[in-house]
Design goal:
It holds the Pfam family HcyBio. The protein is α+β, with helices and mostly antiparallel strands. The chain has a domain of 99 residues. It is 15% helix and 34% strand. The chain is built from 8 helices and 24 strands. Strands 1, 2, 3, 4, 5, 6, 7, 8, 9, 12, 13, 14, 15 and 16 form a 14-stranded mixed β-sheet that branches. It has a 6-stranded mixed β-sheet with strand order 18-17-10-11-24-23. A two-stranded antiparallel sheet has the order 19-22. 47% of the residues are buried.
Length: 417
C-alpha cells in the first residue's frame, strides 16, 4: 500500500490522521508490535542541543534619522554584531548579523545564545554603535521594536553526533564539555537525541526538501538546504524561522569550557507514504552508533558505543535542598551551563538536564541518573560516567509532541516538493 501527501493532508483536515512521535513508534516496536503504513500517517521527530551554526539577522532602530551616516561597529549587551550589508545611510537604524557563538566583550560568560533568549523574553538590551566617523551612539531596545529578527541555522540537527572523553592527564578546554574536562577518563560528554533525532529517522531526507516546513524553537520555519559540512553519512540541515514567533524556552546560551555556546530545538514531520519510510523510524537507541572521540581532536576516534546511553536516564535532576551546604563558592552555580542554579535555588524551567550539577556537587545534593558509556580500550573495557549531556531530551520530546499536536489540530499540513 502507498499513500500520497494529498491523501494524508485530507485525513488531517478531516481529523482522521494517526500521528505518532518517533519515540512512540520505537516503543511499539520494542513491545513486539510492527505498525504498517495502514496504521500510521505521520511520524514527528525532535532534537535539542548545542548548534554552533546559529546566526540572527536583525534590523533595529538606534537613533533618530540623521544622527549618524553609517554604523561601523555595534554591540548588543556587549555581544559584537556585524553591520551590513545594507548601509542604511542617515536612517538611524542598522542592519546586522549576530552569531550565536559570539562572546560578550564585557562578560566572558555571556554570548549570543544568552542574548537571543533575553530578546525573546522581551528584555531591553543595550545597544552601542560606533559610526564610520568614530562617534559613539548608545540606546536601548527590545525585540518588539526590531523591524526584522530572522534566525538562520547554517548547520542544525546533525544525524546525531559524538561523545568525548579525555584520555590524557591534563585538563582540556573545549566547547564539548561544560567545564575543562579532567582526565584520564574522568567522565564523558555527548550530544544527540538518538531515536528521536529528525535525520536519524529520515537519513536520506526523503521527507525534507527546499521549502519544507518544520519547527525551530516552536516557530514555524523552512528547510533551505543541507547545511555546511553535511554529507550523506552525516547529514544536517540549513533552516530558518522568524525569531519573533519563537519560544525562549527552546533556545539559549550554554556555557562551556571554551566559553558560551548556543542551543536550539528542531522538530520535523515524516509523512508515512509506504512501509519502507515507516520502517526507518523503527530504529532504537541501541542500534545507533555513538563514536567516542578524544576531546583534544574529534578526528581521533577512541572507541564506539551507542545511544543506549539515554535509556533509563532522568530528564532532570532532583535537588535535595536540605543537603545543600551553602558553600561560599558553589561549584554547581559556577559550572551550570544555563545559569539555572543561583543563590542555592534550581530553576527547573531554565535547566537543560545536562547533569553537571550531579557530577560536580561533592555533597550529593543533586540526584540524577545521567547514563554510562561502556567502551573498549586497549584490550579491556572502560565504564565512563556521563559528566555532561549537551543535548536535552526533554525539550526534544516537547518539540516532537508540539508538532504532533499541531498536525492533529489541522494547523500544520504536510508539504509536497
Amino acid at each position: 500500500m502507498k499513500k500520497s501527501i494529498q491523501d494524508i493532508n485530507q485525513k488531517i483536515k478531516q481529523g482522521e490522521a494517526t500521528i505518532l512521535t518517533a519515540e512512540e513508534v520505537t516503543h511499539l516496536v520494542m513491545d513486539g508490535e510492527e505498525p504498517t503504513v495502514k496504521d500510521v500517517d505521520v511520524v514527528t521527530t525532535g532534537t535539542c542541543g548545542i548548534m554552533s551554526g546559529t546566526a540572527a539577522i536583525f534590523h533595529l532602530p538606534v537613533a533618530e534619522p540623521g544622527t549618524f551616516k553609517k554604523a561601523h561597529k555595534i554591540t548588543l549587551n556587549g555581544v559584537p554584531g556585524f553591520p551590513g550589508p545594507c548601509p542604511n545611510e542617515w536612517l538611524g537604524s542598522v542592519d546586522l548579523m549576530v552569531y550565536g557563538t559570539s562572546h560578550s566583550i564585557t562578560d566572558p560568560q555571556y554570548g549570543g545564545g544568552f542574548l537571543f533568549k533575553d530578546l525573546l523574553r522581551g528584555e531591553e538590551i543595550e545597544i552601542v554603535v560606533e559610526d564610520i566617523e568614530g562617534k559613539i551612539i548608545k540606546s536601548s531596545v527590545s525585540m518588539d521594536e526590531f523591524g526584522t529578527a530572522q534566525l538562520i541555522g547554517t548547520r542544525f540537527a546533525f544525524k546525531n553526533y559524538t561523545a568525548f572523553t579525555n584520555p590524557a592527564s591534563e585538563p582540556v578546554s573545549s566547547i564539548f564539555n561544560a567545564v575543562d574536562m579532567d582526565g584520564p577518563f574522568k567522565g564523558i560528554s555527548f550530544s544527540g537525541c538518538g531515536e528521536l533525532n529528525p535525520l536519524q529517522n529520515d537519513p536520506l531526507l526523503n521527507s525534507i526538501g527546499k521549502g519544507t516546513r518544520l519547527l525551530i524553537n516552536n516557530s514555524e520555519g523552512l528547510f533551505i538546504n543541507v547545511g555546511t559540512r553535511s554529507s550523506p553519512q552525516k547529514p544536517n540541515m540549513m533552516i530558518t524561522a522568524d525569531m519573533k514567533d519563537m519560544d525562549p524556552h527552546y533556545l539559549g546560551g550554554f556555557r562551556t569550557g571554551a566559553g558560551p555556546e548556543v542551543y536550539n530545538s528542531v522538530a520535523t514531520s515524516i509523512p508515512i507514504l509506504d512501509d519502507e519510510i515507516l520502517q526507518k523510524t523503527f530504529i532504537k537507541n541501541e542500534d545507533i552508533s555513538l563514536p567516542v572521540a578524544d576531546i583534544r581532536g574529534r578526528h581521533s576516534i577512541l572507541s564506539q558505543t551507542n545511544y543506549g546511553v539515554w535509556r533509563g536516564t532522568d530528564e532532570r535532576p532532583t535537588y535535595e535542598k536540605e543537603l545543600c551546604q551553602k558553600c561560599t563558592t558553589c561549584l554547581v552555580e559556577k559550572r551550570c551551563p544555563t545559569m539555572a542554579f543561583t543563590n542555592h535555588e534550581l530553576n527547573t524551567i531554565q535547566c537543560f538536564g545536562c547533569g553537571m550539577c550531579a557530577y560536580s556537587c561533592p555533597f550529593g545534593t543533586f540526584r540524577m541518573e545521567r547514563g554510562q558509556v561502556v567502551m573498549d580500550w586497549e584490550g579491556g573495557v572502560k565504564e565512563l560516567e556521563v559528566s555532561c549531556r549537551q543535548s536535552d531530551i526533554k525539550r526534544a520530546r516537547e518539540m516532537a509532541r508540539e508538532l504532533k499536536k499541531r498536525i492533529e489540530n489541522g494547523t500544520f499540513l504536510l508539504d509536497s516538493f
